[in-house]
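Sample 1 of the test manifest.
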Amino acid sequence: MAEEQGRKWDRCLADSAVKLATGLGVGIVFSVLFFKRRTWPVVFGLGVGLGMGYSNCQQDFRSPYLLHGHMVKEQ
Amino acid sequence: MLRVCLKGANSAARKCLCGNGVPLHPLQQCRSYTSGGSGSSAGKIVAASVLTMGGGVGGTILYANWDPKFRANVEKSIPYSDQVFGLALGPAAPPPVINKPRKVEPVQISSMSEVWKDSKQPKAKEVQRKAEQPDAEGPPAPAPQETLEAAAKCTECEHEPAVKERPEGEVAARLAEQDKAEQDLLTSLSSNLEDALGSTAKVTLQAIGAQEAALQAIAQHTRQLREAMEAEAPPDKKSTQWRVLEDALSERSRSVDEAGAAVLKAKAELDKLRGVIDGAKHLKIAAARPSILAAEENLHSMVVDLDSVVTRVQTAQSEAKIVSQYSELVNEAKAQFQKELNSITPEIQANWKGLTGKLTQDDLNSLIAHAHRRIDQLNRELAEQRVREQIHIDSALEQQKLEDKKALEVAISTALEHNREQMRLEQEKKVEETREVMEAEMRTQLRRQAAAHTDHLRDVLKVQEQELRSEAEEILNSSLMEKETEYRRLTQDQLDSFTLDMNAAYARLKGMEEAIDSHVIAEEEARKAHQLWLSVEALNYTLKTAALNDPTEPLEGAVQAIKESCAEDEFAQALATALPSESLSRGVYSEASLRARFYTIRQLARRVALIDETRNSLYQYFLSYLQAMLLFEKAQEAPPAKLSAEDLDTFKLLSYAAYSLEHGDLELAAKLVNQLKGESRRVAQDWLKEARLTLETKQVVSLLSAYANAVGLGTTMAP
């Protein structure tokens, strides 16, 4: 269990980074496409990414206390 | 018995022959085969057979001499052997056992004698009775009285010790003597009587004969007289007739005298006989009574005959007298008639019968006239005679009456006497008969009584026999039962002792076996303990094989070994099963590794100290990280004995745990770590699990080793 934290942190950061990047990317895209290369969609995208990552991280860290139902794959 | 003797003799003879002749026999046979028999072999055979026979006979005689029963048997079975025995050994002794019917009478006699032992006279009477009862003819003996006296004496002296029981032989001998004496007596008596009777009879017969002769003579005389009277014979014949008549008369007188003398003799004899009879009667022997009675009857008959003959003679004499008188009268008449006839017809002879042809008519007429005259005369005489007759008849009647009376008296007296005698005889006969009848009755009654007695005896004997038999059976049964119980007891004792021994032996065997088994068991236990200890040591060793960060080898093998080594030890089994499965499958971490791991856990737990269920956002995470960076606690702090509320702080707990870990107390450390809360607890959970596993395993192993040690100690300490 001690590694869980580590793993969680790894996952969180990775996910945040991805989200961030994704947000950035989506922001950039949107800004390029729709918002005439303004920066606010990039930031917005970054923020969205960051926020998503943050919430995912939080969700991940809270996960032991949450009960989940799992779909059992029928094999 | 005889056959046995013979066989014995034969076998003995044969043996001796065979003993001598065994070498001879084959030779003999050879000889017979070769030479066809020789004289010596035949002689030998003859000699052998003679020897055998002689031996058999001699043996029989010797044994018969010794054993009278055997002699009796042989005499019974082989005819003429009794003669042989008589020749060789003398007559047999009187057998002690006499026939039953003969026995009955002596018994009767003795009983009767015992009944009637009051006075001497009845004794004498019964002695005589005894003497007379067995009716037999024997040799002549001395005078009956003497023998009777002797018999009386011996029977009297027999009777004096009357009541006690005499042995059969003695009784029989005495009875035989008595019988003999009685026989002698009786025979003497009877012979006497017979002699007397005979002589008397002879004499009487003589007398009777004489009387008969006299009668005959008288009759002849009278006949002749009558003939002489009636027949008209010529004078010379008449003279011969008269001479014959005289002879007859003399003969008659002679015979009458003879008869009288004979009668006298006979009477004397009769008197003698009567005397003898009286004497015999005085002797009072009952069995001679019939003979006495017969003698008396004979006497009486003789007397009667004699008297009758005498009366006949007398009547004949009287008749003769009458006839003589009549003859005289007739003679007279004849003479007178003859004279008349002669007077009338002198020519005519006396003989009428020859006259019929010679008579003429005149003679006839004269004869007829004479006859008529004679008839008239006779008629007159007849009338006269009738008249006289009456007187004569009266006188004659009177005389006759007198004579008749006398004769009647005499006859009456004789008839009375005869009748008296007859009556007496009849009475005596009747008495005798009744006596006989009574005696017979008495005998039958006594026989009946004896029979009843024997029946009673038989019944009593039967009853006694049954009683005795039942008693004997009872005794037998009781003794049998006793013996059986005894036997059973003995066998039971034997069995018991045997069982006891067996049980003891068995128990000892069992004890030994148990001891051995226990030894075996103890050794087994010891071995097992040793094994257990070894396996526990192996487990310990496997526990020690933990690398720094790897768990130990899976304890399964060792635990399996333990389980095998202590298959029947429940405690060990329980302990072995109490090991956590992860330890078995995966192995456990060593303390050192856990200690090492703790520090990382500590770090981590420090970092998430603020996170718990309510505070678990990322911000909190940041804050807890910050706290962990900024808060400094003692690396190791000795935990207090009791944890207070403020000691439940994560950092403190972690320091306590570190301290206890450093001091080797994993358990305390685990306990302290267990007090963590929240995320730090979650983080430490893994370590805690491991620590718990290790602790468990260690505990079980230590228990097992302690147990193994204890068991081993126990086994080694066991006797």
